[in-house]
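hey can u run this one w/ heme C bound, need the structure tokens asap thx
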Amino acid sequence: MKTPLWLLTAGIALCACTKTKTPESTHVPADDTTILQAANTRPLTDIKFEKTEARLKRGEYLANGILQCFICHSERDSTQAGFPPVAAKKGGGAILGQLGKFRMVAPNISPDKETGAGNWTDDMFARAIREGVGHDGRALSLPMYWASFSNLADEDLASVVVYLRSIPPVKNALPQRLLPPEREKELQGSPKMLTGPVAFPDTADALKKGIYLVKVADCVGCHTGWYGTNPGMFGGGNPMYKNTNHKPVWSTNLTPDPTGLAGWDAATFINAIRTGKGGTLDASMPWAAYRNMSDKDLTAILTALKRLPPVNHRVLNSLPSTDCAICGQKHGYGEHNKIKPFPNVKTDTTLYNQYAGKYSNPDGLVLEIKYKDHQLLINEGGPDLLLVPIGNNRFNGIGLATPVSFERDKSGKVSSLICYWIEDEWFKKLP
Ligand code: HEC
Ligand code: HEC
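ok here u go:
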């Protein structure tokens, strides 16, 4: 599949409300394509993950399932539905896309000593997978899901590394990536070092496990329409194969709305992922990997999706692309989508000025609430969006990624803002 993936889909879930478009590095005709070292990284340690049967098994399950490592790091068989990885080439890497002289390469991560990762240390893997820095110190770019993999629990990370070191070596020499110089610069500061252990969620709780899997897989990156007017997180509308001449395909709505997965039960969901809806689902949806997950894990994923705030936005790739009033783009079913007005809820607008201010999440992302002409506006980094009351102390808005609400501290002062997506995300009010 020759798709300049690094220009398109596979967003990184930074945070609920603020996630903006994936930066699009279109081209620049300069000659300096030197690969730059990451600016913020940590020294490598000599950590060694002990090889155990349990880790080998778990690592195999994760890498071939929810983490879809070989969908990118292998040649794929385009004669089969879903383009599964070619078994004999697993981990051998692949050129993911080429645009003019630029290219994105998923390196050979199989244990081949000459052309692959045979000489890398365990921490080179660990740092690349969860912190976005390659074995050679370069900042890794978008198609590599390190930002969502940063949610991977320590033991799961160990399992994946142990397993990858056990797969058969694949001899496959690949060129290095070649990016426009300003994209290299932009990347330099992007890695994020982990500051503490990442615990494994309570596996007895299907919802918690589902949230873990959805976050690690970055379903939201693909399944949200970042490019038009955002219909809401997980509401679909992200174009795959942007800037290519491949037939356009749009991600679909995964929220529990009638235009999304409201009518789906576990059996329907499992069947859709296992079979790629009878082989009809496009290969940009990594079902060829997800189908290897257990019924239990797939059911957990659906459980987590079912608690998302519903988003009204249908995408049907079997229909021709027509104008969509909701996301402002052209996609299958678009012309049939109607904007549903938010419920007209009465609220005490005299409280509004108390909400105004800046709010920050633990990652330092800042949202601003503005009070203007008796109305509330939210700024997530793009244009100001109008907040409409949809319930007691709950607001939504056209183009807003998630509904929001406000919390007060014991003294009654507004202290936080909450965004609702796969988990509730808290932003503290800045003084
Ligand atoms: C959507 C595609 C994609 C998926 C899925 C993916 N990777 Fe990657 N990976 C890449 C790309 C592309 C790069 C190189 C990025 C760059 O050079 O900017 C990369 C880089 C890496 C590196 C660093 C290689 C080096 O040169 O140091 C490692 C290690 C790695 N990936 C392991 C994994 C593992 C393990 C998984 C599954 C847990 C995985 N990747 C899933 C695309 C992917
Ligand atoms: C790389 C992008 C990408 C990722 C990651 C991704 N999807 Fe998809 N998904 C798509 C696209 C595109 C479609 C539509 C394909 C088509 O219609 O042929 C789709 C379709 C689906 C469908 C079928 C929906 C329907 O109404 O037919 C389901 C269910 C689904 N995805 C669930 C998930 C889940 C759950 C995750 C995370 C575990 C996920 N997807 C991750 C791109 C992605």
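The CA atoms of residues 136 and 421 lie 36 Å apart. anyway lmk if its weird
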